[in-house]
Prior knowledge:
Chain A is α/β, with parallel strands linked by helices. Chain A has helices spanning about 40-50, 80-90, 130-140, 145-150, 165-175, 180-200, 220-230, 240-260; strands at about 5-10, 15-20, 25-30, 55-65, 75, 95-100, 105-110, 115-120, 210, 235. The longest helix of chain A has 20 residues, at about 180-200. Chain B is an alpha/beta fold. In chain B, about 40% of the residues lie in helices and about 20% in strands. In chain B, the strands form two sheets. A five-stranded mixed beta sheet of chain B has the order 3-2-1-4-5, with helices on both faces. The chains are: A alpha/beta, B alpha/beta. Chains A and B meet through helix 3 and helix 5 of A and helix 5 of B.
Amino acid sequence: MNYFAGIDIGSTMTKVVIFSDTIEASLIGPTGPEHRKLANKVMEETLAKSGLRFEDIAYIVATGYGRINVPFADRQVTEITCHAKGLHHLLPSVKTIVDIGGQDSKGIKIHDGKVTSFVMNDKCAAGTGRFLEIIADSLGIPLEKLGEISLTAQSAAEISSTCTVFAEHEVINKLASGESIANLVAGIHESVATRVYALVKKLKIEPDVAITGGGAKNIGLVKALEGKFGFPIMVPPEPLITGALGAALVGKEVYQKYAADGQMPTRSGRGLEEAKLFS
Amino acid sequence: MTYVLGIDVGSGYSKAVVCEDTSIRSFAVMPSGGDYKEVARSVAKKALSELGLSLNEVAYTVAGGYGASMVDFADHSLTDISCHAAGIHHIFPSVKTVIDVGAQFTRAIRLDDAGRIANFILNEKCAGGSGKFLQTIARILSMDVSEIGDLSLTATKPVEFTTACAVFAESEAVSRIAEGAAPADILAGLNKAMASKIVTLVTRVGFAPDCAVTGGGAKNNGLVRAIEEELTATVFVANEPQITAAFGAALTAFEKFQTR
Lengths: 279, 260
């Protein structure tokens, strides 16, 4: 049996998937400020979980925002490609992917698991996980509770500011003037959904639509997005690992292509080491 | 001898200027806080007390700015844009483009030869080009906003920021600090990011020389320099750029008083 690892270093979370014909093990850890020092640790833990040794892995692909900081990866692939690949494996009927990450949001159109077009916002915090994080923080609510809290809202509070900085003030002012937390949370989901929909709309949206990234774990946000899209949005069982899974799948393809010609792909030759600064 | 009062209640600071006819006699600046009605009175009294005057001795009062409607003792109120235009035209009659960098909003105003407003754009959608942006970064570096300018001018390798989003720039600044970038280089990079955001606004309103920068942001000489570089033009800065709109309000008060 050949094993392939995908490692996705996002701005907020680091994800690892080990794949053979199926997902052998997966792990999610915070990226933190020193992500260079982290890739090897998360990899190590995932190996321990799967009962495999580093030497057992036939090919490693790194993806995501911090992909250049994985010295032991054999190849770096963009997260757009990996998301498409991973999602197609999980939900083959999907044609449009909405990815809401910690510091960006994306829309990806796919055909047979290949990217046909994509749009991305990483210039403005509005419409990204960062927006939700900041507002959750100022309301004193854990990020992962937002979804469930918003479901108890009577009506979504109107948040007129787009900018995260201004919206934070607006939310605090509204809270001070008696608006309920649930209504405010529903309001910020509405705000993120509006931004994300405006972004993804630039592509020709075709069902089925699926959502990935941390935003997919927020049921309130998914429901707000469904309201904008006008049809149901599919959520994979573990939406955070789609990119890492895709990376492992890309690794498997590369490996098999070489193997078909009776060759072995070139490896990085590096062990489970930390990345050097600016390497 | 006529004393007139101009008040500018901004989103960050409130300013009052007392003029004798059209000459500034005293002024005061204080944080706006949460009670605009109260701060308007306080800042007015502070400026007046320097001259031993009380509100009753003021012939005419004009209020402008974000909280102008809360100034219950004003005889007249104006938009902040009109106040800026009046103030800057009096200080620098040749100025055609005014950039006001306020605490929460940045405005670009085009004036005609007579100092009338020809066009203006307000950036109220994004904190990227506003004072808020500088406050955020100053907080991370545990310094006062007023120290940013001088320090940024000592930069040797300004850090390149990939975005002018106040939220993302904050995390970018933190990452650069972790990598050992000098505060001066970070600040110079931020001034540059902010200047490019501001100049986009200026381009949209239609740039014409001469140009002046007003508002609290004008006190950041590093930002002013960065704006000059982006515009490839010299910009004027008044001695007290933060009170430009309040001065404009006072000038309007004098005019109103004469034609009343």
